[in-house]
Amino acid sequence: MADPLRRVHTQEPAYGVVDSKQTAAKGREKIFLASKESRRISLIFLIVLVILFVVSSGFTRFNPLAALFAQGEFWNFILTDFVPPYMGKWAALAQAVVQTICMALAASGIAAVLSLGLSFLGTKTIVPSPVLNALVRGFASILRNIPDLVWAFILVAAFGIGTVVGVLALLIASTGSLTRFFIETLDEAAEENMEGLLAAGSAMPPVIFQAILPAAMPGLIAWILYSVELNIRASTILGMVGAGGIGLLLMGYIKQYNYPAASTAILAVAFIIIAVNILTEYLRKLILR
Q1: Mean pLDDT, the chain, as a whole number?
Q2: Which of 6, 45, 185, 198 could serve as a FRET partner for 20 with CA atoms 20 to 30 Å apart?
């Protein structure tokens, strides 16, 4: 007679154990490794990047090890000359901060109006003219692909130092960028809302103002907020070449070897950029939700 205990010990494992083992096995089967072709392409791409880095470093005479070992001198300069910040020139700093913010807001606002008009001409679904669409898109590409710092150099040479030059430089670059962004936004809104209304007999102006623009407005406002954020960052750099704002004040402090005051201006720039970034991110989420 067979031992009942022996039968118990030789029985199959419990259902839960078998199920968990099968699930684990199936999970392992679903893990797909990269193909040999993909790994080969990735390896070639990595080798090309390394070669380009070595060639570029040799061409520019850049030594990464020397730059790494020179960090001590850099931090010694920062901790000796820039620390602690000098907090005594609040009036000049506050005026420069207000100028920087106003430059960015003015440039973004004017650029938004100009870009909206150009974007209608560049949107193929609203103005189906390939030649006009191409001209507007090409014009916007030229404006946006020339850095705003280059525009600032040209305008400073033409008009002199001042905040007007900063606004104009930001305005030109922002118009190019916003025009391209607005064209894409209007294209998407027009494809979703225009066909049905035109088929129902609506004219183009009501379709634009009652269907396309309301649908595209959240995206347009989000791009304008993004432009404000970029322009506040850019205005700091433009000020260093004479375009006004806190950048001009910062460059003046550095030329005077007044590094503690320059440190205060740098901290103010960081605070402005962080605050504007948080504010615009909150507003974009509020608009697009």
Answers
A1: 79
A2: 6
